[in-house]
Amino acid sequence: MSFDRHFQRRRRARNRLLMLAALVAAATLGAATFAVLTRDSGSEKASSDQKHSTSPPSSRPTSGSTEPDVLPNADAVKDGVPIGYPHTVKGAISAAAHFYDISDPFDPSAQEKLARITAVPGKEKELGDDAFRFAMALRSSAGLQPVGESDNANFYTAQSRAYRISAAKADKVVVWILTDTELSVRGVMKSETTVQTASLLWAEGDWKFTTHEDRRKEPRPVVPDSSEAVREGWRTLAYEK
């Protein structure tokens, strides 16, 4: 299955962990404990050397825009998880945005697998266990049974809409992602726009999430594609077709 087909199938049905914490009573249980991404470096292609070349930090955009910045897709999908992003600032942003778009916080087993596959080296078990416990707590706080995937009445979806860069070096990027989210618990819907912080390192041929930066530094959420968003430096994002 191609990445694009996989992503389109999942992006509206199952999404992200940290945003749900802001929408249910268990919000304080661990938003800063979860965000990792990794990749099996053996899947690198020799023909993609130029794609994975380092982008100088000084080239990162600093002004806001509603003209979409097109972000690169991953090279492959491993057990349902996109892996293999270019060694560029936009590659790091894409890794962050895709992560939030495909997570399913109402499926503890899926969250654990996502965290283990994408964990920074040496922390696969720790971060996988954290993800599983966090998702279980969120299900409990929403009054759901301990196990079960998302369905028509209980789901959480997120769509990454824009980004701002907090810091960027050749092998580390800290980025804020502006997301539109929808939460349904027993058919009761709630929508919100929120900000996520992602800290990414380049290791083993891919961008991998580590811990979140101090969330008190996050900018406030704004309406995506608005004049206010542009004034505050948000840049609309889109993905390669």
What is the arithmetic mean of pLDDT?
A: 77
Helical segment count? 6
Q: From the alpha-carbon coordinates, what is the Rg to the nearest angstrom?
A: 17 Å
The side-by-side strand order for the widest beta sheet comes to 1-8-4-5-6-7
How is the topology of this model organized?
Blueprint (H helix, E strand, L loop, with lengths): L2 H9 L6 H4 L43 E7 L4 E3 L2 E3 L5 H14 L5 H11 L5 H18 L13 E14 L3 E14 L2 E16 L2 E4 L17 H5 L3 E5 L2
Parallel strand pairs: 1-8
Antiparallel strand pairs: 2-3, 4-5, 4-8, 5-6, 6-7
Helix pairs in contact: 4-5
Explained architecture:
The strands form two sheets. Strands 1-8-4-5-6-7 form a six-stranded mixed beta sheet. The longest helix has 18 residues, at 124-141. It has helices spanning 3-11, 18-21, 89-102, 108-118, 124-141, 227-231; strands at residues 65-71, 76-78, 81-83, 155-168, 172-185, 188-203, 206-209, 235-239. It has 241 residues and is α+β, with helices and mostly antiparallel strands. It contains six helices and eight strands. 25% of the residues lie in helices and 27% in strands. Helix 4 runs antiparallel to helix 5.
